[in-house]
Design goal:
Blueprint (H helix, E strand, L loop, with lengths): L2 H9 L8 H16 L6 H8 L3 H12 L3 H19 L4 H7 L5 H12 L3 H10 L1
């Protein structure tokens, strides 16, 4: 699922007005999209947004069906996928560029997200 799909599912209201939970969820999504290269820390994010971490986690999951950490990894993998297709950079360099400390962890998370390793993803997308 792409970021736009998640946002559309969350914020598609008939009135056009967002609830407090929707506003917080949007703020968290924006925060993650801005800070995706950084190591994920619920405590740090909650502190910077001036909310309780447990509350943030509960509201975000209620509105998106996923956790902030899963969304963080999703954003990293989306950005990495774009870089894999738009450049010839090494997979390990791309993993590092989107914030993964090790290429093994990057490969594991990417495969979980897309169903392909980064190398397979690049090869199948460029071939087709």
């Amino acid at each position: 699922m792409k970021c736009a799909d998640i946002q559309a599912a969350v914020f598609n209201t008939e009135t056009g007005k967002k609830t407090a939970g929707e506003k917080l969820t949007q703020t968290v999504m924006t925060y993650i999209e801005t800070h995706y290269r950084e190591k994920f820390s619920l405590k740090k994010m909650a502190g910077e947004l001036f909310v309780n971490g447990c509350y943030l986690l509960r509201v975000f999951k209620q509105h998106t069906g996923t956790t902030p950490l899963a969304y963080h990894n999703h954003i990293r993998c989306e950005r990495a996928g774009e870089m894999l297709l738009q450049s010839d950079r090494r997979v390990s360099d791309i993993g590092e560029a989107v914030g993964f400390a090790s290429s093994a962890h990057f490969t594991h998370v990417f495969k979980k997200e897309w169903g392909f390793t980064p190398t397979e993803f690049r090869a199948t997308r460029q071939a087709g």
